[in-house]
Design brief:
Helix content: 10-25%
Pfam families: Archease
Organism: Amazonocrinis nigriterrae CENA67
Distance between the termini: 23 Å
InterPro entries: Archease (IPR002804), Archease_dom (IPR023572), Archease_dom_sf (IPR036820)
Shape: globular
Number of strands: 9
Radius of gyration: 14 Å
Protein name: Archease
Structural class: alpha+beta
Number of helices: 2
GO molecular function, one term: metal ion binding
Strand content: 35-45%
Number of domains: 1
Length: about 140
């Protein structure tokens, strides 16, 4: 499979995985990478949000490194779907360092979540520096 084409922004693509579901995400920096990972999660799950007014949540997470924060970030978004039936389509990272993340997300109640995801895993997960930015491949437990 060819390397993704970086054109001054991030992105994602679904990749083959033997047992679960995986996707590769990339961005120019950590903020871009985290936002693209969230966008990809909702896109791949084929989520439809209700057209009601916007719901805003502030998310604050702690971790031991950027990898643990990336997993915690995505699992928190899954938790908000399971606990409050919320989905998000706007993401702003307010603070991100090696041990903490603070973000503000906006969205609405989920009208339809078409592909069930149990959790984001640590399976072979690392954040790699490439010549054009950062890249990670995430495996989803489905």
């Amino acid at each position: 499979m060819n390397s993704p084409n970086f054109i001054n922004f991030g992105g994602f693509e679904e990749v083959e995985h033997t047992a679960d579901w995986a996707y590769r995400v990339w961005g120019q920096n950590l903020t871009d990478l985290f936002i693209q990972a969230a966008i990809a999660l909702y896109t791949l799950a084929d989520v439809e949000l209700a057209s009601e007014s916007s719901i805003k949540r502030k998310i604050q997470l702690q971790g031991v490194d950027h990898v643990s924060l990336l997993v915690a970030w995505l699992n928190e978004l899954l938790y908000l779907h399971e606990s409050e039936n919320l989905g998000f389509n706007q993401f702003e990272i307010l603070h991100l360092d090696v041990h903490s993340l603070e973000a503000e997300v906006r969205g609405a109640h989920v009208q339809n979540w078409n592909k069930f995801i149990k959790a984001v895993t640590y399976h072979n997960l690392s954040i790699q520096q490439t010549e054009k930015g950062l890249e990670a491949t995430l495996v989803l437990d489905v």
